[in-house]
Amino acid sequence: GRIACANVLSDLYAMGVTECDNVLMLLSVSQRMSDEGLGTWGWGLGKGAGLTNMGGVYGHGGGVWGHGGRPGACPTLTPAPPRPDSAVPGDVLVLTKPLGTHMAVTAHQWLDMPERWNKIKLVVTREEVELAYQEAVASMATLNRTGEG
């Protein structure tokens, strides 16, 4: 839940939005997910509310739809939020989070796939993969608000 919420808010901050009053997320789950898995997933998702409060955003309600196509709608703002399309050569790029989280998560998944783990175990240890994974999760669950504006 914290990662999903941080992703939404961080995308807004990256676009130059400095204040967000309300977050409502609509998520989808596989129809094949077990009741136990769904309960665990829902519990973890609910923990995202703490992050919305940290970001000064009121998080509430929401919905979960089963797997499959559904119609969607998106509210629009007037005036529209700023677009990040005015960069020019020489501009300073501020990284508010480390790069490589996807690679760390993938390597962690490969720990349980011998055919894939064998491809990378010569250059990285299990301990290094576990540490990189924990750091990636912590990064993904953290707001990048310090880079706004």
UniProtKB/TrEMBL annotation:
One of its GO terms (cellular component) is cytoplasm. It comes from the Eukaryota. GO terms for biological process: selenocysteine biosynthetic process. Keywords: ATP-binding, Kinase, Nucleotide-binding, Transferase. SUPFAM superfamilies: PurM C-terminal domain-like. GO terms for molecular function: ATP binding; selenide, water dikinase activity. InterPro entries: PurM-like_C_sf, PurM-like_N_sf, SPS/SelD. PANTHER family: SELENIDE, WATER DIKINASE, SELENIDE, WATER DIKINASE 2. This is SPS2 dikinase. The gene is Sephs2.
